[in-house]
Specification:
binds FE2/S2 (inorganic) cluster, DNA polymerase, domain 1, single chain, 2Fe-2S_ferredoxin-type, 7 helices, 39% helix, five-stranded mixed β-sheet, metal-binding
Length: 239
């Protein structure tokens, strides 16, 4: 219990009444204690943050797990023409085609392998160019939508897309065209799909179900699916 002469706030003994200087000295210990207590409380409250701050230098002094690798010459063969580019190893094939080669037909939709807008052909096989690194494709033949036509003539699947009005905004169309080109050759080569009656046998017909399944990696936000299926079927039937 505090005496009547004790400070009502901190319980410290009263300061001398003789001069201002003794008053200041007498109050210093309690102020110091108060500041020390406040600092301790703040330290406890901020401990996780401070721990993260103090650990950061240790992490930065450790060997970098993902160091910056300088660009190096990479030669890509795109639509029959060789391009030697200065690329960092982390550059995707999609970015290499669009930003370095300058072929903007291949589209970036999701940039994570979900939409198919970036589909190109590599040695005849369709791949999502956003999911692969450009440096992995030296020595391979890359075909983009710009390379589907030859000698100024549209390919059969390009003509079928026009005849069947198989697009609206057109953003997905380059990927759809490359994918459909591969679907036709995959079917010609006898490759089964997950809807084929017997996945060990050559599918008998390129039905609409087969086309839908084989084109299912290419999303069309305009919903032009019915006409895309019709175009693929027509290109197949007219081949
Ligand atoms: S941009 Fe490559 S799959 Fe969507
Ligand atoms: S035509 Fe617009 S996204 Fe397919």
């Amino acid at each position: 219990m505090t005496t009547p002469t004790d400070c009502q706030h901190c319980g410290d003994a009263p300061a001398s009444e003789s001069t201002a200087e003794p008053t200041l000295k007498a109050s210093q210990p309690s102020r110091r204690r108060f500041l020390q207590s406040a600092a301790a409380a703040a330290t406890i409250g901020a401990a996780p943050h401070l721990r993260a701050q103090t650990q950061a230098p240790a992490a930065s002094s450790a060997p970098q797990s993902n160091p910056v690798v300088p660009p190096r010459p990479v030669t890509l063969t795109v639509n029959g023409r060789a391009y030697t580019l200065q690329l960092e190893p982390r550059v995707t094939l999609l970015d290499a085609l669009r930003e370095y080669v300058g072929l903007m037909g291949t589209k970036k939709g999701c940039d994570r392998g979900q939409c198919g807008a970036c589909t190109v052909l590599v040695d005849g096989r369709r791949i999502n160019s956003c999911l692969t690194l450009a440096v992995m494709h030296e020595g391979e033949n890359i075909t983009t939508v710009e390379g589907l036509a030859s000698n100024g003539a549209l390919s059969p699947i390009q003509r079928a897309f026009i005849e069947h009005d198989a697009f609206q905004c057109g953003y997905c169309t380059p990927g759809q065209l490359c994918s459909a080109t591969a679907v036709l050759s995959e079917f010609r080569d006898g490759a089964a799909s997950t809807v084929s009656a017997d996945v060990r046998a050559r599918p008998a017909a390129l039905t609409d179900d087969e086309i839908r399944e084989r084109m299912s990696g290419n999303i069309c936000r305009c919903g032009a699916y019915a006409n895309i299926v019709a175009a693929v079927r027509a290109a197949h039937d007219n081949a």
